[in-house]
Amino acid sequence: MARGSLLPVILLLLIFFLPADLSAQCSICTKTAQQLGERPAKALNAGIIYLGLTPFLIIGYIGYRWWKDNNN
Predict the structure, then answer these.
(1) Are 14 and 6 in contact (CB under 8 A)?
(2) Which residues have CB under 8 Å from 45's CB, separation 6+?
(3) Which parts of the chain are beta strand (E)?
(4) Which of 36, 46, 48, 69 has CB 3.0 to 4.6 Å from 40, enough for a Cys bridge?
(5) How confident is the chain (72 residues) per 10-residue block, as mean pLDDT?
(6) Residue 25 contacts residue 47 (beta carbons within 8 Å)
(7) pLDDT value at position 23?
(8) Domain residues of the chain, as ranges?
């Protein structure tokens, strides 16, 4: 297998084997979410994951473009 095609395979495996329910709440947010109910708690958790993942995706994209431009 070529080295360049190994990364997409690893990413796909990670997507399939990561748990579907990720907990991203601190203890205070968990207590607040428990008082709100199940649907708002899931929405709060999804929002926390979204806000935490967005900077990593942006920095990852910039880093990938920088790496690709410097290796050509």
Answers:
(1) no
(2) 22, 23, 24, 25, 33
(3) none
(4) 36
(5) 69 73 70 84 83 89 89 77
(6) no
(7) 64
(8) 23-72
